[in-house]
């Protein structure tokens, strides 16, 4: 009888898996839920608010979006404050939305205007209020503020969506461009948000692994550094091109959930042309709203990635397995990634910095303060991002600093 | 910098939602579960008990209904008391139902008659008993009593189903007529039961909102009063018709779950012609059994509501949203309505009274007594309801009392 | 007024149902989970390990099976130890499997061979290990050991699969032959394992109830006795045939989950020709892998049972109800059978003995010992089973002992 060596590192010795609840869970009262509720979030396209009530789910809350006959958008709790029937079956009228069950009419701020089954249309109707959230429209999107009323900041504007060339317009899109897959993505929002400073997955996942998903030059292994911006984390990568010049790319993950990602197809060397908002639907689903400068309606949609030459929806299960993209990589981390099982390396520095930045905001809120990036001053100028695709000579100071570090 | 007013009444300040468990949850050992188990409930049509075992789910319990070869209906726990295989796969024989796995044979009262794999067919077979429930057949329905054996009341009879005209017959229906939708309704039974004394949803939901779902005169806003009956809550509504006469309508919600609802299509002015039993399948599903006097087989089924001219099954999702009926209003309250979010008004007095009446029964049972409407005397006369559609002159005393109150 | 007798034995008086967790639940850390983890289990066919990662679920754990370019099979935890993306989307290479997200390459023992985004391909890559399990290939199957490394036994061999006639070969099958149904069976594994010593269900379920599912002689009510074997429970049954001879049949349930069941179609009187392993997928699903001696490829698959003349997949819902087989009987016990509701009889002695045998192993492991049937000696000879279909005269000593007991 010989004695076999004892196996090391088997899965039997693995500890139970857990996720970092404080960074991922978005319900009201949860640390991240409260942090995210200090910001405005896009919850629909301008056209989603109309005469037909639309059900939307945001941060784990079920809400109804509509636009009254006077043109004002409203976002209210789904269940009527009277007897709980969903206002999804309500009727939109000149002054608000009316519940189908007993006809109570609410305006966009939840004021009860009519109680038709009550004497004199409701002598005490002022005492009830349909829970509602304030909304504002900008860049083709409807933004909602779901946090403490006394902490409502001004809705930020962004320079990259404000300074348009004569032939440009701003277009909005709700199909989760940038997710790598369909509109509703079945995993935690942080898995996507962390992907933004994860510069190194680009040459692997989008280059070597599944073939060229963007353009060939993005498959070049870059030199990368990360820096904190005032409202997030900047990822700066440099690639030496065949002609000796340097593709200098800056990507930003900005508070609260912003994707500030220059065109990965690098059609021209300019500052970032679109913004994406990673909207947590609940703890295990997210979607992305995008607004961007385009030359023609529909341009944003034309920028979707292809794998094996096909759009994501067109792939067979076998092709999804063979040609994974962002959707497969992120959803493949599970409904909520098990952070306790991770082994982060130097190339994950951007992810680490993003988590630290979020952690600092959680601490600021817990201490009674305001998180970064909120302003209460209507005169606040538009946010300026450094993000973009830039081209420079190899001996440019910036290129030298990064490539020769 | 200007200071915006702080938003009031937003959803952020909402308290966590809860339901009244004591009034809604129907499992064994729960307050309402025990109250409901003091009464007989219909659990199938007479024809459902036959030579093929039928799976039924009632008050959260999975049961098997069959009829032995001698014609006796049996209702037994689904899982065989021997090794737990479901008797759904059993075989119905002359003397009972036989489990497929090892052939134990049980009669309709759960006595074990044969254990074919045991010596002498089971020397100790008298020591086992398949859990069963007593059943009785009446009005085309099979009623079961699922409560404490020593508290089993007599099966009530109802005058409105006993006194037939020469051309009338009693028909039973299991398709949940009155639910506004399909056979199995995915919400708590109380949402439906409370709809009975909710007189004011009729002119809104069934009149103004989705078009005329019954007949035009039901869309007239009524004067309404509520009264306790010995076994429930009566809703009395009066509508002044175009010809000056008064449509005087009495609806009753009676213990345990009875819909005593006159024909909402008001084809004639008579006492109530049918009864419905709101059967809780479990906490989040219910169905309705109906028995009624008809002139021809199938008449009950012809009384289903139409929305936008279509039967509920025929509506598109868009039409369900545009033309909601009882199903949409009640299912739209959620799997179990969040009572903590409600704001009841004077027009909800019937709902309030129904809940109080149920609460009193819970208290009676908790105190060791019997709830209202149970009798242990086989000579108990049939229950008489006041419910009906009646026509009267405007100066009739009853009309005056209600309309001029 | 007459007083009715009070009903006895109704379902109202039933106690809450529970299952024996220690015997059924298979997760890591659970008593049975730990016991099962002391043995090798088949987790795929040899051909399942290939160039395309295959997702397998065993004992509640999600794993990825593959075969590297050198021909070595690997079984690793599904989620990459770097950032958690599933290796289902990985790429199989010469030396191992590479994660799609950042390209970490792992060999079949989880060693990290490359970290392409890290300096020098990962200076600290030796510090990480993808959780893995050792595998071995035998009889056309891939066996995994998922227990404590220091307790890894030798992979057992079985005489019945080793001693082949000249015209015989060993074939493996993964379609859950013996389950009576489809490949993935939606109930706890013990319900199937206990079926093996349950000799008496054969003449009922497979004979009298649904017609002849195997052959007519198996419908004869046998005399049965049970004996402990060193690694399980033997079931010995004798049937007197029409010609006066005796069909003497020995079936064994062997540790850990082995079905040692002679051909129920009794095509010849020989020792057992195939083995089945009841693999727990998780607490509420199992599947069966089979290896057997055959004369031609595909012979195993040709041995599937027919009910009403049809394969299980071909039956209508009505036929499943009318012609139940093992699948219906066992799945019909529920996701996990409610042992507290059982009433075991003398014919269940085999089931009782199997549970006691398992209980003894749980105690042995809890006491720090080794369960029966594990060996650490590579020179351990193949396991010999007594199982088989045998024919003998009525006056044969063995027949006399059993039939005249």
Q: Most extensive chain contact?
A: A-B, 51 and 43 residues
Supply Rg of chain A. Answer: 24 Å
Q: Helical residue percent of chain A?
A: 10-25%
**Low-pLDDT windows of residues of chain A:** none
Report the span from N to C terminus of chain A. 57 Å
Series of H and E elements of chain A: HHEEEEEEEEEEEEHHEEEEEEHHHEH
Report the sheet-strand fraction of chain A. 15-25%
Which terms summarize this structure?
homotrimer, alpha+beta, 15% helix, globular
Explain what this protein looks like in three dimensions:
Three copies of one chain form a homotrimer. The first copy, chain A, is an alpha+beta fold and 405 residues long. In chain A, 15% of the residues lie in helices and 25% in strands. The first copy, chain A, is built from eight helices and 19 strands. Chain A has helices at 21-24, 31-36, 189-193, 201-209, 317-322, 326-331, 349-366, 397-403; strands spanning 40-45, 54-58, 61-67, 73-77, 91-92, 97-98, 105-106, 112-114, 132-133, 135-138, 141-145, 169-173, 223-229, 232-240, 246-254, 258-260, 274-282, 285-294, 388-392. In chain A, strand 3 (61-67) and strand 4 (73-77) form a beta hairpin. The longest helix of chain A is centred in the C-terminal third of the chain and has 18 residues, at 349-366. The N and C termini of chain A lie far apart (57 Å). The mean pLDDT of chain A is 95. Chains in contact: A-B, A-C, B-C. At the A-C interface, helix 4 and helix 6 of A face strand 9 of C.
């Amino acid at each position: 009888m010989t004695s076999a060596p004892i196996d090391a590192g088997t899965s039997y010795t693995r500890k139970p898996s857990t996720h970092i609840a404080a960074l991922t869970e978005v319900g009201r009262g949860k640390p991240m839920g409260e942090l995210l509720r200090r910001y405005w979030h896009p919850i629909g396209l301008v056209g989603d608010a109309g005469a037909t009530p639309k059900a939307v789910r945001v941060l784990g809350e079920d809400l109804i979006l509509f636009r009254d006959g006077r043109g004002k958008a409203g976002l209210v709790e789904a269940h009527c404050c009277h007897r709980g029937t969903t206002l999804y079956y309500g009727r939109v009228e000149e002054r608000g939305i009316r519940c189908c069950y007993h006809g109570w009419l609410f305006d966009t701020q939840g004021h009860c205007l009519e109680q038709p089954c009550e004497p004199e249309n409701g002598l005490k109707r002022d005492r009830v209020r349909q829970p509602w959230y304030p909304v504002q429209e900008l860049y083709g999107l409807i933004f909602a503020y779901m946090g403490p009323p006394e902490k409502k900041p001004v809705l930020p504007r962004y320079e990259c969506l404000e300074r348009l060339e004569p032939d440009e317009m701003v277009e909005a899109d709700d199909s989760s461009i940038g997710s790598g897959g369909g509109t509703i993505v079945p995993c935690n929002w942080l898995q996507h948000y962390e992907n933004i400073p994860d510069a190194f997955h680009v040459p692997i996942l989008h280059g070597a692994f599944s073939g060229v998903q963007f353009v060939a030059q993005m498959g070049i292994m870059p030199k990368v550094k990360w820096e904190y911006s005032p409202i997030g984390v900047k990822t700066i990568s440099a690639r030496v091109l065949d002609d000796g010049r340097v593709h200098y790319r800056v990507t930003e993950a900005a508070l609260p959930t912003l994707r500030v990602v220059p065109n990965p197809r690098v059609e021209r060397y300019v500052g970032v042309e679109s913004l994406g908002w990673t909207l947590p639907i609940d703890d295990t689903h997210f979607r992305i709203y995008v607004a961007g400068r385009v030359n023609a309606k529909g341009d944003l949609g034309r920028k979707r990635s292809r794998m094996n030459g096909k759009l994501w929806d067109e792939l067979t299960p076998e092709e999804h397995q063979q040609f994974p993209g962002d959707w497969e990589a992120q959803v493949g981390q599970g409904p909520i990634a098990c952070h306790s099982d991770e082994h982060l390396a130097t190339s994950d520095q951007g992810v680490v910095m993003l988590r630290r930045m979020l952690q600092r905001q959680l601490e600021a809120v817990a201490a009674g303060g305001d998180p970064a990036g909120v302003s209460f001053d209507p005169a606040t100028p538009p946010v300026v991002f450094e993000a973009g695709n830039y081209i420079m000579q190899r001996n440019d100071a910036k290129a030298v600093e990064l490539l020769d570090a």
